[in-house]
Amino acid sequence: MSEQLNRIEAQITAIVNLITQQQKDISKIQKRIATKERKPRLKQATATITAPSSYLEYPDMSITLDAKTWMDIRKGKKITLQGQGWPLDDEDTYQDFWSFNESGQASVRVYFPDPDNADELYTDVIFNGLLRECDVEESPVQKRKAGTTPLKPPTKV
Predict the structure, then answer these.
(1) Is 39 exposed, middle or buried (0-12, 13-18, 19+ CB in 10 A)?
(2) Mind listing the pLDDT tens digit for each residue in 66-78?
(3) Ranges of each domain in the chain
(4) Bridge-partner residues for 111, per DSSP?
């Protein structure tokens, strides 16, 4: 009987040792998971953003962004871009500028600087709000075929 008890005791000791080792392994895995920063992966896409105008005399303004610039904006990077411009008449064009994330995450400001007054930061703010208030059309990035030209990013200011 004592021999049988010794075998049972040895088996119990082996099981306890196995469970202890597994608990240590689980703790290591939990620590690795806890230390890794898990962020949702943003998909590569180009975007056309249309900001509603706060003035009747100005149309809604749009800007088309390449994938890298759009990714930087979505990540919260402060970026100011020169837009395509708005034709004032047959000869003159107002140059529009777009500031992203300047006054907080996902903020957008579209404005025309005063061409006659360099001291003035901006004269007409066309839109000042949040990205969610704009119309955003994303297009997934397609693999470029040989011989084609990639989308040119807007000019950074």
Answers:
(1) exposed
(2) 999 999 999 999 9
(3) 1-38, 45-156
(4) 97, 125
